[in-house]
């Protein structure tokens, strides 16, 4: 019946292959047994065929789930004319009858050659993919998918292990879907035989094969075609590749056996390499973890070394103090200082304590004026009596007066009872008035009278009460300058400054910084590391800094650093301005040897300029917070408010303070 060659032009994804046939029947499907094999999951193993009938052609369906479509209709049997196209899965196939009987080699492929070429192309593609895959689990999946494709199998299983330790690592079907409960879907007996013998087992129909038909798994699974091959890893059988088809027999033959044997040989090497890579990665991770542990141990050892170094430094300091031979009449253990400046302070205190005259303590903010006042009280004959303290700058004039002298019921609106004043409460003891320079002139006058007469009269009362009080005052302002400018009463100044004492700033007693540091850190416990210590390099940084906030600033800096550290304060835990040391602490005015008149100004004008500039800086840095600004300036909030009013500065307007209006200067 044959009457020459006809062509099938197979097109997909923009590529076309030409296949030439001379026989009267050409089968088309996914199976490699078909005359035209098309690897597409939408195509059945035996999908359709083309028949040559009476000089024409017919397209016949072979029971496919997705029949071929001709003229946009599913085909059962239909005439196929030359030039017409039909769809088969994802392929478009066109029938062509050449004008001449023969076709060139470049335009045609014979059926056997096409199958061999397809097998070779598929295997090379699979080998390349396996070689590129580095993850073991994905590699095993690719091996099973490749076996199903090469053998046109229904399902594939990959079992690894030896003896009783066997695991189904991968179970897939021809649609590349996972097979659920795979341990119950494969004949374990056949798999064990291949693992034990190392020989391939092939049956075209297990139901009728004398070797397998009595196996329970064959009957339960209704197996037909089965092909099980050993996988050798490092020369030993380390697993099996198992493919089957439960619906058809005669699916696997020598061709499939040879293809999958080659695949298993290649797979064994790929699995060995992948396991080797996994082992190297695991060892690399273990090494990294070990190195990390070594780094942690080194860090712990460095911390212990730093701690021991700090302890030795403290011991040296204590020995140096003991050998210095400092002796005082009274005990000043609550005041830290062993340098020359503080020894001079202690010498004065030894003489002042037993006296009853008023003491005036001057010094910058944060130098410990109240601490000195308490030391005078605790070492004096008045130690068993009260120590009453008040900050004169913290209260407005009217409230401060009532606090000082007390009041009786009905003395003013809101006076619902009688209250003793500070002077009366301190009777027999010590009254400490801090920031006395901020007291108004009227209140200064009343205080002077009370000191001279030794009696007080509460507000609203006609009776006076005798009081025996030792007065200690403190200020960070120049009272002599205030007296000259008329802002402080001269007679009160002489009354309260009988025994003056000036506390040195911390920058003038740097030798005491190690002792202060030790005292503050002894009172600080880290929540995880207990006692906090100071690295010698960090201590050197503390010694180099100018400490404009004096001892109070040092205490706050150590408190902040102790929170940041891990038990030992390092340089990195210190604030940036502390690390900068004294290099960025410039004098308020440059000393070029000239006096104010030679620079076209006056000292009061310079003081005004200084105060306005520093208030502006503090205001900007605090973000407009008045209390924080006052703290930065070493003033009380009330004192700052007085300066803002004096210089007509209005921070409540929302911007930084403006330039001052003309008025009397108020020196700091």
Please tell me about this protein's structure:
By secondary structure, this protein is of the alpha+beta class. It is built from 19 helices and 29 strands. The chain has a six-stranded antiparallel sheet, with no helix packed on it. A five-stranded mixed sheet has the order 4-3-5-6-9. Strands 13-12-16-15-14 form a five-stranded antiparallel sheet, with helices on both faces. A hairpin with a 2-residue loop joins strand 7 and strand 8. The radius of gyration is 51 Å and the shape is elongated. The model is unreliable at 100-111, 583-588 and 654-668 (pLDDT under 50).
Brief digest:
This protein is of the alpha+beta class.
Which consecutive residue ranges, at least 5 long each, have pLDDT under 50?
Answer: 100-111, 583-588, 654-668
State Rg: 51 Å
Number of helices: 19
Overall 3D shape: elongated
Strand content: 15-25%
Number of strands: 29
The helix-and-strand class reads alpha+beta
Q: Going across the biggest sheet, name each strand in turn.
A: 2-1-11-10-7-8
Secondary structure elements and pairings:
Blueprint: E1 6-12, E2 15-21, E3 25-29, E4 36-37, E5 48-53, E6 56-61, E7 69-70, E8 73-74, E9 77-79, E10 85-88, E11 91-96, H1 111-132, H2 136-151, E12 155-162, E13 165-173, H3 188-197, E14 201-203, H4 216-221, E15 225-233, E16 236-245, H5 254-323, H6 340-352, E17 359-362, H7 369-379, E18 387-391, H8 397-405, E19 406-407, E20 419-420, H9 422-425, E21 430-434, H10 441-453, E22 455-456, E23 465-466, E24 470-475, H11 479-484, H12 490-496, E25 499-502, H13 513-522, E26 525-526, E27 530-531, E28 533-534, H14 536-544, H15 550-564, E29 568-569, H16 576-579, H17 603-621, H18 626-633, H19 637-646
Parallel strand pairs: 3-4, 17-24, 17-25, 18-21, 21-24, 28-29
Antiparallel strand pairs: 1-2, 1-11, 3-5, 5-6, 6-9, 7-8, 7-10, 10-11, 12-13, 12-16, 14-15, 15-16, 19-20, 22-23, 26-27
């Amino acid at each position: 019946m044959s009457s020459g060659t006809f062509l099938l032009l197979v097109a997909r994804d923009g590529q076309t292959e030409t296949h030439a046939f001379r026989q009267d029947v050409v089968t088309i499907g996914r199976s490699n047994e078909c005359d035209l094999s098309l690897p597409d999951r939408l195509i059945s193993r035996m999908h359709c065929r083309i028949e040559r009938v009476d000089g024409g052609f017919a397209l016949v369906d072979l029971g496919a789930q997705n029949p071929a479509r001709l003229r946009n209709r599913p085909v059962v049997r239909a005439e196929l004319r030359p030039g017409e196209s039909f769809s088969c899965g994802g392929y478009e196939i066109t029938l062509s009858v050449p004008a001449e009987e023969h076709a060139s080699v470049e335009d045609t492929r014979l059926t056997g050659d096409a199958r061999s070429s397809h097998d070779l192309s598929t295997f090379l593609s699979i080998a390349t993919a396996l070689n590129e895959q580095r993850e073991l689990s994905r590699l095993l999946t690719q091996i099973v998918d490749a076996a199903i494709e090469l053998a046109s199998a229904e399902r594939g299983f990959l079992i690894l292990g030896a003896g009783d330790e066997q695991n189904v690592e991968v179970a897939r079907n021809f649609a590349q879907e996972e097979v659920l409960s795979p341990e119950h879907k494969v004949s374990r007996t056949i798999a064990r035989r291949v693992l034990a013998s190392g020989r391939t087992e092939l049956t075209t129909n297990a139901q009728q094969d004398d070797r397998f038909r009595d196996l329970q798994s064959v009957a339960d699974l209704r197996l037909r075609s089965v092909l099980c091959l050993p996988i050798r890893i490092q020369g030993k059988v380390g697993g099996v590749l198992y493919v089957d088809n439960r619906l058809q027999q005669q699916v696997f033959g020598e061709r499939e056996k040879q293809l999958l044997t080659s695949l298993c040989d290649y797979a064994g090497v790929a699995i060995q390499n992948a396991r080797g890579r996994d082992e190297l990665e695991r060892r690399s991770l273990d090494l990294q973890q070990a190195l990390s542990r070594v780094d942690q141990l080194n860090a712990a050892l460095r911390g212990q070394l730093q701690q021991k170094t700090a302890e030795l430094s403290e011991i040296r300091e204590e020995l140096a103090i003991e050998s210095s031979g400092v002796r005082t009449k009274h005990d000043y253990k609550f005041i830290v200082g062993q340098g020359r400046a503080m020894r001079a302070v202690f010498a004065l205190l030894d003489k002042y304590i037993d006296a009853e005259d008023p003491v005036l303590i001057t010094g910058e903010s944060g130098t410990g004026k109240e601490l000195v006042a308490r030391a005078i009280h605790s070492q004096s004959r008045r130690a068993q009596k009260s120590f009453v303290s008040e900050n004169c700058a913290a209260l407005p004039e009217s409230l401060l007066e009532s606090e000082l002298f007390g009041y009786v019921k009905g003395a003013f609106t809101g006076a619902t009872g009688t209250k003793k004043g500070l002077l009366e409460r301190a009777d027999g003891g010590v009254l400490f008035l801090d920031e006395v320079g901020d007291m108004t002139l009227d209140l200064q006058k009343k205080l002077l009278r009370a000191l001279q007469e030794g009696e007080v009269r509460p507000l609203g009362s006609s009776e006076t009460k005798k009081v025996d009080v030792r007065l200690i005052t403190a200020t960070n302002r120049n009272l002599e300058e205030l007296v000259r400018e008329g802002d402080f009463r001269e007679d009160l100044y002489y009354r309260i400054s009988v025994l003056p004492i000036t506390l040195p700033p911390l920058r003038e007693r740097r030798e005491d910084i190690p002792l202060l540091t030790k005292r503050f850190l002894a009172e600080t416990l880290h929540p995880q590391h207990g006692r906090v210590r100071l690295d010698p390099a960090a201590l050197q940084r503390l010694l180099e800094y100018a400490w404009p906030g004096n001892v109070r600033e040092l205490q706050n800096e150590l408190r902040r650093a102790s929170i940041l550290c891990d038990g030992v304060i390092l340089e990195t835990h210190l604030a940036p301005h502390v690390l900068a040391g004294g290099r960025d602490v410039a004098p308020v005015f440059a000393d070029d040897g000239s006096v104010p008149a030679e620079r076209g100004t006056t000292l009061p004008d310079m003081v005004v300029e200084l105060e306005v500039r520093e208030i502006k800086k503090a205001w900007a840095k605090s973000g407009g917070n008045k209390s924080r600004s006052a703290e930065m300036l070493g003033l009380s909030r009330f004192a700052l408010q007085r300066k803002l009013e004096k210089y007509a500065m209005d921070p409540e307007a929302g911007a930084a303070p403006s330039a001052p209006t003309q008025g009397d200067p108020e020196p700091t």
